[in-house]
């Protein structure tokens, strides 16, 4: 049994690692090594040409800037919009809370193409098409239910006694929230913001419906896939993946089934 | 009498103020777009009058739509079955302690840390004409002439399923593993005392207690499988449409938001109907936990 388990595990490890390995390998391979009848798994000639082309050729900054701007704006707005609501939801009686969370879950069921389509039509009229603001507004659609969900959990974990004690000590609602609740919720708020950032950073569907000239990094990948340029594709995908991998490992203990419902796609 | 919302302990106006931004956002930028897609799908292309079934008629007369519907169902049914089986096997393997389990669990997280668009691009290195799948088959002496796995047909559907498996099986595994770890060990001890063998323990202890996790995994994954978009668009493009990409092509390539909306509405109805039907059978309490 034991050797069999290890054999299965090794096969699985190879299955999981090979696509990621190929991505990094192709981003630093010479064309002759990749476009051949018989590509090899091992690396022979290493070149930094593709990285140089993207980084120093001025092709990185515009999409990187758009992705960073939209992801950061999405994370901050997601907190601003969902934290107050999550605080109230966390204090609801069980039945109400359950219904509210289920409603939030249901909004995640809608096909994104069906939301993106009328958005694209309206955004063209409103001048929001192909803008950072427009894409941020769209990214909030997929982000808010998740951040609200995470934050309800973290507000629930703060005992009500603490709040009541602050009230007895003469602190008003506003002061209790700012001085007592907010610091205690800070870890939860950080996790929610990071998830929101990730969800926007790697988002594709809304981006492809709502952009034309100003591309995010995922759109840049799509563009080069259709150009048939494996090397630039591999380089851009490596750049996108690095922060996602790091954050996924940093946030792994928060990966609960509930958050997974929509957080990882 | 002071204003109160319906639940005990409500602080009235403050609660309304706190709930308002999220509620308004979801109403305005999630619910309203969905409703306008539905409205658009019943609107006449030329006169703009409502309601008409012309868009649905145009869609069902389009062979590509039936392709898309078939492909979506194929990918969902075959993909989900494989994910569940593989995910369960992996979860069972990882639920018993062994040396290197920490490493194995860390490896499992890799696909979760790779965005869908990236995994789709990566799969082109494997399924392309000069890709690694062809080379592996060639090395094994199974293949003479290279195949383009992404050009359409059953093999392309299987390529999409395989690519999706890579990305999502670890997620299914994590959900099932959490379920497995919540089963109390005493139950297994009791089953052993009663003389139950390994299969009986699995069949009569593990499976019934794992049902809520299986339900959760099925619903979460089922919804995503129906609306799969970035992966087929990037990996196989027009050769193998699914409902989401069909919706996209109708709007972007054919400039027809009306048929696009009709196809999006059909997808929405499919998702809602399947989920509600499943929740009716399995019970809702199990989804949130």
Concise account of the structure shown:
Chain A has 265 residues and is an all-alpha fold. Chain A has helices at 2-27, 31-34, 49-55, 61-90, 94-107, 112-126, 132-156, 160-168, 173-201, 205-210, 217-227, 230-250, 257-263. In chain A, helix 1 crosses helix 12 (230-250) and helix 5 (94-107) packs antiparallel against helix 7.
CATH superfamily of the largest domain in chain A: MetI-like
Total of domains of chain A:
2
Tally of distinct domains of chain B: 2
Helix content range of the residues of chain A, please?
A: over 70%
- The best one-word shape of chain A is globular
Average of per-residue pLDDT values of chain A: 88
Rounded to the nearest angstrom, the radius of gyration of chain A is 23 Å
Mean pLDDT over the full residue set of chain B: 89
Portion in strands of chain B? under 5%
What kind of sheet is the major sheet of chain B? Answer: none
